Amino acid sequence: MKVELQNLTKVFPSRHVKGEEVVAVNNFTFTIPDGKLVGLLGPSGCGKSTTLYMICGLQKPSGGKIFFGEDDVTLLPPENRGVGLVFQNYALYPHMTVKQNIMFPLQNLKGADKLTKEQMLERAYECAKIVQIDELMDRKPSELSGGQQQRVAIARALVKMPRVLLLDEPLSNLDARLRLQTREEIKRIQKETNITTVFVTHDQEEAMSISDMIVVMKLGIIQQIGKPQDVYNSPANLFVAKFLGTPPINVFSGKIKDGKVIIGEEAVLDVPGVEDQEVHIGIRPEGFILKDDGPFSCKMENVEVMGRDVSVVATNPASQNPIIRAIIDADSPIDQEAETVRFAIKKNKIFLFNKETEERIYTGTEKGAKQKEVK
Length: 375
Ligand code: ADP
Ligand code: MG
Prior knowledge:
binds magnesium ion
């Protein structure tokens, strides 16, 4: 089921200042393709949950429309939309068994949709199998781990065979290991069932790893939409560049002069045709190459080895981050005692942003970069 948002907007009266309004969701227009998993990503308060609740029908839009396939569902109550919703805090009924929890949404079906007890059980077991909890059907929620409880919540959302599955920060209450495992599970379940899914998270790594497409949001405004890797490789503005990636992108204050990128006094890269101006310069940690006669010099702080990765930690007066982190090839010979470390910069890992607007300045060499820009 394709889901289409057209100029979707939600305005709330401010919780803090009387008489003021908050535009929680500002004019969202995008399409969630049939059978795909889309991640809504952004910091707390950017409007992710509000968007999800409007798709679900729990919140009424202040403006705009929502379509499921060709059907305008904007004013349809939640129970008639065919959606399954999973919250961060599972919200299971504590006095019911797993089986009863999963069957619960089926008990209110009326008319032609009404099911017999046997049919309900069969459905419940089918869904429990998908999320691999069919062995735990007679337990109470309190006898389950957090990850298992969240699977029950997912099974309960699946049992009515929704057209659209909506997940609001479903992994936030799990510890790090379970979070990783459960997110793989969600991806598998989504692939298996092929249900169009919207996944809300503030965790960029989670969104990047699980989504077919991400929508990066800030203060109710869409910043960029695309495949996770495309957005990472070609951020539309400084906010998106900084929000995606661990370790984070290194940002420098610098300028363009005579077709060169200048940091401090050093010309680190040629960008012919780009106008002279002051800029923010973003360089991904994997964008540095150790090179004795490289154009960019930094003060060596130390070298960190973490599993496969070797990072050079360095500083530079033009850096906006307290430290610069450069992930380098583990086999590169490196003199940790040296005072200065010199780098060359990979062309496809450096991004320029307008000093004031923080919008990307395209240098004309990016493949398809302009088309990916979101207006
Ligand atoms: P997120 O899920 O991305 O953290 P929300 O969608 O919950 O963000 O909230 C977006 C903005 O709307 C925030 O500024 C929040 O304070 C505001 N907001 C959300 N719900 C309400 C409400 N019921 N009344 C007033 N303001 C609200
Ligand atoms: Mg939220």
